[in-house]
From TrEMBL:
SUPFAM superfamilies: NAD(P)-binding Rossmann-fold domains. This is SDR family oxidoreductase. InterPro entries: NAD(P)-bd_dom_sf, SDR_DHRS6-like, SDR_fam. Belongs to the short-chain dehydrogenases/reductases (SDR) family. The keyword Translocase does not apply. Gene3D superfamilies: NAD(P)-binding Rossmann-like Domain. The lineage of its organism: Bacteria, Pseudomonadati, Pseudomonadota, Betaproteobacteria, Neisseriales.
Amino acid sequence: MSLSQQRILILGGSNGMGLATAQRVARASAEVFIAGRTQARLDVALDAIAGRAEGLIVDFTDPASLASAAERLGRIDHLVLAASSNAAWGPFGEISADTLRRALEGKLLGYWQTLQAMLPILRRDGSVAMLTGAASRTAMPGTSGLAAVNGAITQMAMTLAKELAPLRVNVVSPGLVDTPAYDGMPEEAKRGMFESAARNLPVGCTGTSEDVAAAV
Ligand SMILES: NC(=O)c1ccc[n+]([C@@H]2O[C@H](COP(=O)([O-])OP(=O)(O)OC[C@H]3O[C@@H](n4cnc5c(N)ncnc54)[C@H](OP(=O)(O)O)[C@@H]3O)[C@@H](O)[C@H]2O)c1
């Protein structure tokens, strides 16, 4: 399938796996739009894509921000949902209802509202790819909050794949991937987490943003 001239919007395209996806589809001559909340991050990302994309300031928790992005774009062929904020990590007993609510708003509701806002401008037989997360398909203690958010997206996507056909709706469910999402961790703790995850995986390594971009 050629992506040449296809208009692709990537929410969360200014960092991590969204950015790797933007770089990949830009190399395939797509017309790429990356969206996120911060201009500085968009600027660095646009440099990394060598000017072969446009940046849009969008906060997907804000319907007005999504409506103005849809108006500016006019039409798109494909939508990639790769953003998230306020992930609810940690033991079940330590995740308050407020923390879970913020995590749901920062991913499930964001995906929901973005798709609703973009549907009128999305090609009827185009595609939607949603990044979920391994916590939704493996029982890992300490990830009940991630499982709740990402599991809800997975189930929602299965229903939407039928309801919105011929639009193709898919999820891509990454395991642990070294992205700037972990920049806030002390370096040693981060290295320990990735090394331990790699040891426990049959392939002996964690994934990269480029692996996920290829799947998207
Ligand atoms: N990294 C992992 O190990 C891992 C594992 C499994 C699943 N995932 C999932 O994979 C996806 C990508 O993860 P990543 O690690 O590549 O993320 P990341 O590096 O933290 O990047 C997140 C992106 O989302 C944007 N964003 C955050 N909140 C937003 C909002 N309210 N509105 C619009 N844009 C927003 C950020 O830009 P601004 O901050 O400028 O808005 C940034 O571009 C996420 O859905 C994450 O949950 C990640």
